Amino acid sequence: MSLAALGPAKPLVLAGSPRKQGIEHGRRARQEILANLNLVRRGMLDLAARGRSYDYEGLLARNEAFVQREAPEILEEVQGIGEGAEVPYRDLLLLNLPLYFVGILMPLECSQILVAPPATADGRIYLAKTRDLSRGRLEHVVLHRRYDDGRELIEVGAAGSITWPGSGINSDGLALSTSGVWSKRTVIDLDRAARGWLLINSHLLLRDSRSVDDLAERLSAQPRVTGLNLVATDRHAAAAFEATADRVYRQEAEGGILVRTNHFLTPEIRRLAPTPEEHPSSYHRYQVAVARLRQQHGQWDSSRLAGLLADHNGYPQLSICRHAQNGEGADTIYASIASLPEGELWSTLDNPCKSLTPDQPAAE
């Protein structure tokens, strides 16, 4: 399958070895990478000022040694990004081994929406995603990777980072997306940094998996410090995965519908997630999306789904498309829609309400 990147977000096309792909990424996204590094540095200083400092160098060194054993090509690509962007390799480790974001309980708040037959009007499968960010803007890029063996990936992730894209699709016909689940009950054992990914490595899952079942096995086997919600689909199956540091719980799509935001639904781990009082937006976005999908069951297509991503029910902070006010609250910083079996990924690196075409009205 040959992939196509659509929408206002123009992809960076990368090919060749990990180092070569990294150099091109760094060269073409240098300004965005510098902005992201400044965001991380400011955040680390703010944490230290509030008495929450970490042994960044020690933890990064231990996690880097794990990555060198587990997937050394990741570090080769990070080195290439540093060369292309003309920034130090050690700085880029902060984006790819994201200790800072884990330390502040990952203020990335996302919505994932899947519709497949019989919920769609055109027989296609769609996996949609928004990523919301508080505490500053993290610049994102779309990477269209072409490998020497003929395989392709399209991923949307933070500029300068390759280990935790928020969504993507591969040429085997597999699409995935992610959303974080963080609360004051989230236990983060940083001693695991020597033997696991700080965040689940969604790039490796997308790169190496050929199907939803294949991804399920790889996800369960991937050593990790923290968990998340993940939705994956191929042309034959769709499932949500709720992962902790130790377990993965799978739920199949019912009636061609799946929605995940920033809390768990699985009874065994629901207590670890934020409550409705602690995170009202997560529950509101989930409820609005599920209700809308059921109300218009059998009518969904890419245009209607783009309108749902731009939904302002509960504006400005409870809504699927979120808008910070005077620098306070979360902003939706990107949206994407993967389409199967075509192998297309539409994306915008902004609020989805700003990227609608005339046939894609925002939901009221």
Helix/strand structural class? alpha+beta
Rg to the nearest angstrom?
19 Å
Report the principal-axis shape: globular
Give me the count of strands: 14
Contiguous runs where pLDDT drops below 50 for at least 5 residues:
357-364
What is the level-2 CATH architecture name of the domain at 103-354?
4-Layer Sandwich
Name the CATH superfamily assignment of the domain at 103-354: Penicillin V Acylase, Chain A
Q: Percentage of helical residues?
A: 25-40%
Question: Quick check: average pLDDT?
Answer: 92
End-to-end C-alpha gap: 37 Å
What's the level 1 CATH class of the domain at 103-354? Answer: Alpha Beta
User: What is the CATH fold-level name of the domain at 103-354?
Assistant: Penicillin V Acylase, Chain A
Enumerate the strands of the largest sheet in spatial order, edge to edge or round the barrel.
Answer: 2-5-6-7-8-9-10-11
Biggest pleated-sheet summary: 8 strands, mixed
What is the string of SSEs from the N terminus onward? EEHHHHHHEEEEEEHHEEEEHHEE
Question: Which helices and strands occur, and which strands form pairs?
Answer:
Elements: E1 4-6, E2 12-15, H1 18-28, H2 30-49, H3 56-70, H4 72-85, H5 89-96, H6 99-103, E3 108-115, E4 125-133, E5 140-146, E6 152-158, E7 167-170, E8 174-179, H7 202-208, H8 212-221, E9 228-233, E10 238-243, E11 248-252, E12 257-260, H9 280-295, H10 302-309, E13 331-340, E14 344-348
Parallel strand pairs: 1-14, 2-5
Antiparallel strand pairs: 3-4, 3-12, 4-13, 5-6, 6-7, 7-8, 8-9, 9-10, 10-11, 13-14
Question: Can you characterise this structure?
Answer:
The chain has a domain at about 105-355: Penicillin V Acylase, Chain A (4-Layer Sandwich). The protein is built from ten helices and 14 strands. It has helices at about 20-30, 30-50, 55-70, 70-85, 90-95, 100-105, 200-210, 210-220, 280-295, 300-310; strands at about 5, 10-15, 110-115, 125-135, 140-145, 150-160, 165-170, 175-180, 230-235, 240-245, 250, 255-260, 330-340, 345-350. Strands 2-5-6-7-8-9-10-11 form an eight-stranded mixed β-sheet. Helix 3 crosses helix 4. Mean pLDDT is about 90; it is low at about 355-364.
